[in-house]
Amino acid sequence: QVQLVESGGGLVQPGGSLRLTCAVSSDTFSDHYMDWYRQAPGKEREYVARISTSGSQTWYIDSVKGRFTISRDDGKNTVYLQMNNLKPEDSAVYYCHQPGTTYWGQGTQVTVSS
Residues 110, 83: contact at Cβ < 8 Å? Predict the structure, then answer.
């Protein structure tokens, strides 16, 4: 059974930074792309970022380009989301996901507010 566990969320002021971590219990972590999603209250879950195997390619939604960075450490079975210059509209529960599977983490809350 593959488990994904997110951490690193919290309350931060606009313009601040957070780094989210997703630890994955899997023997095949390095073989999979990884995604970050988010869901704000009353809204659908939306894709935020993706990283390829080995981390050679990354993709982002337009609203976070230049502010968020996805990365991975295959030696630690971990994927990260560095979030800088946070805005109130970034407030949401953030989830990591292994695309092509049904595996999702439980989410970590990010709140951007003064």
Answer: yes
Q: Is 66 helix (H, G, I), strand (E, B) or coil?
A: coil
Helix (H/G/I), strand (E/B), else coil: 88: helix
Burial class (CB in 10 A: 0-12, 13-18, 19+), 65: exposed
pLDDT tens for each residue of 7-43: 999 999 999 999 999 999 999 999 999 999 999 999 9
Torsion angles phi and psi, residue 89, rounded to 5 = -70, -5
Check: CB of residue 35 under 8 Å from CB of residue 50.
yes
Report DSSP state, residue 107: -
Cα angle 15, 18, 23 (rounded to 5 degrees) comes to 160
**Spatial CA neighbour of 97 closest among 27, 34, 25, 32:** 34
The total of other beta-carbon atoms located within 10 Å of residue 50's CB is 18
